[in-house]
Amino acid sequence: MQAPDRAVLDSSAIAAIFFKEVASSRALKSAAGCDPITLDLAIAEVGNVAWKRVSFSGENEGTALEALRDCMVFISTTCALLKSSDLMEEAFGIAVQEKVSFYDSLFLAAAEQESVPLLTLDKKLYDKVKESRDVRLV
């Protein structure tokens, strides 16, 4: 499958770029191959990833903070940043229709608004909406 020119990256894809995990190289390749778009919500969700890594996985606090800083620079300088509040009604409709979380539906709504695919590492989300939405598993 050819990489899209533009795509919405959800928080799982962005976090994998900056926090070492099995899918990190795939996430980095996907992001490097497109003009990335994300939501302001990604800032809070990636911050939560950093907190979990320190609190539950024993990652060094300084290392996690540095990765979080790099993530914030990526979101604010590389990604086109959309406001979650602008997508509230569309996202709510998607959440109800697809029976997915409102958080996830915000990223789906962003992808639909921009007419681009959503790139995610969330296999559960992917499996749930792959037949009805343009979502790609990284």
Q: In words, what does this structure look like?
A:
This protein is an alpha/beta fold and 138 residues long. It has one domain (6-137): 3-Layer(aba) Sandwich (Rossmann fold), CATH 3.40.50. Helix content is 59%, strand content 13%. The protein has helices at residues 11-18, 24-32, 41-57, 61-77, 88-98, 102-114, 123-129, and strands at residues 6-9, 35-39, 80-82, 118-120, 135-137. The chain has a 5-stranded parallel sheet, with helices on both faces. Helix 7 links the parallel strand 4 (118-120) and strand 5. The model has no long low-confidence stretch (mean pLDDT 96).
Topology:
Layout: E1 6-9, H1 11-18, H2 24-32, E2 35-39, H3 41-57, H4 61-77, E3 80-82, H5 88-98, H6 102-114, E4 118-120, H7 123-129, E5 135-137
Parallel strand pairs: 1-2, 1-4, 2-3, 4-5
Work out the count of structural domains. Answer: 1
Q: Give the N-terminus to C-terminus distance in angstroms.
A: 11 Å
| Sequence of secondary-structure elements | EHHEHHEHHEHE
Briefly, what CATH class? Alpha Beta
- Main sheet characteristics: 5 strands, parallel
Give me the number of helical elements: 7
The shape is: globular
CATH architecture: 3-Layer(aba) Sandwich
Look up the CATH topology: Rossmann fold
Tell me the strand order in the biggest sheet. 3-2-1-4-5
* Structural class determined from secondary elements: alpha/beta
Could you tell me the strand content as a percent range? 5-15%
Helix content range of the residues, please? 55-70%
What attributes does this structure have?
59% helix; 7 helices; Rossmann fold; 5-stranded parallel β-sheet; globular; 138 residues; alpha/beta
